[in-house]
Write a structure and sequence with these properties.
Layout: E1 2-7, H1 11-24, E2 28-33, E3 54-55, H2 68-77, H3 80-87, E4 91-94, E5 97-100, H4 105-118, E6 122-124, E7 129-134, E8 138-142, E9 146-149, E10 151-154, H5 171-176, E11 211-213, E12 216-219
Parallel strand pairs: 1-2, 1-10, 2-6
Antiparallel strand pairs: 3-5, 4-5, 7-8, 8-9, 11-12
Helix pairs in contact: 1-4
Length: 220
């Protein structure tokens, strides 16, 4: 039996563990390592807690990648509404945005984790990966112990993970394995104000913003 370690128990790591178990069944052992004390931490915050799962307006132009054909194939073939329904998570579109019918991110977490646990995926928490060695097998060193694996999958997210507890750059681990790392670029980010207005933290609004220079609008 092959052992596969997935680093990161975010949405991609947890969902991938489910897909692998569904397709490989008893041919593999799946272990997910997460440095936080619980899984899917960022998922609980998405969509202001309502969990915006997908968007009808999908375009390869929205992705920073040098593999556009590969991304386009995923967009063409993957149906988020159908896939979530198969997990037992019933969803609806509100305009272009896809939400769980419950409009609660917690229900998404519960469905995904229940499915992963029923399939026999093992989760280990408070396991920050600090280095990986490659010999006959991979040795994955965390702050607490060392794991062996035949395959290692990185699903730990980007530097945006600092918002949910990532302490160190994960790119250093990739570079030490002599893997090519594409420079990351910001996508959806929060706005900051001076002074800080606490009442606005976490508030999502639709509106028009203007950038002024010498009282002249230079971008809108």
């Amino acid at each position: 039996m092959k052992k596969i370690i997935i680093i990161g128990a975010g949405a991609s790591g947890v969902y991938l563990s489910i897909l692998l178990k569904q397709k490989l069944e008893y041919q593999c052992e799946i272990i997910v390592l997460e440095q936080n004390a619980s899984p899917l931490k960022k998922l609980l915050a998405t969509g202001n807690g309502r969990c915006n799962l997908s968007n009808k307006d999908m375009s390869v132009d929205y992705f920073s990648t040098d593999q556009k054909d590969y991304v386009q194939d995923i967009i063409d073939q993957f149906d988020m509404l159908k896939q979530m329904n198969e997990l037992g998570l019933y969803c609806v579109y509100q305009g272009n945005l896809l939400y769980p019918k419950s409009e609660q991110a917690l229900s998404v977490k519960q469905v995904m984790m229940n499915c992963a646990n029923e399939l026999g995926v093992s989760f280990f928490y408070n396991q920050e990966v600090i280095s990986i060695e490659q010999s006959k097998r991979y040795l994955v060193h965390t702050t607490h112990q060392t794991y062996q694996a035949d395959y290692v999958i990185f699903a730990m997210g980007s530097e945006a993970g600092k918002l949910s507890g990532v302490n160190n750059s994960r790119y250093d681990i990739l570079k030490k394995l002599k893997l090519d790392v594409v420079k990351s670029t910001p996508s959806l980010v929060q706005m900051t104000t001076l002074p800080v207005i606490k009442e606005w933290k976490g508030v999502r609004v639709k509106g028009t913003f203007s950038l002024l220079e010498n009282n002249q609008c230079i971008h809108k």
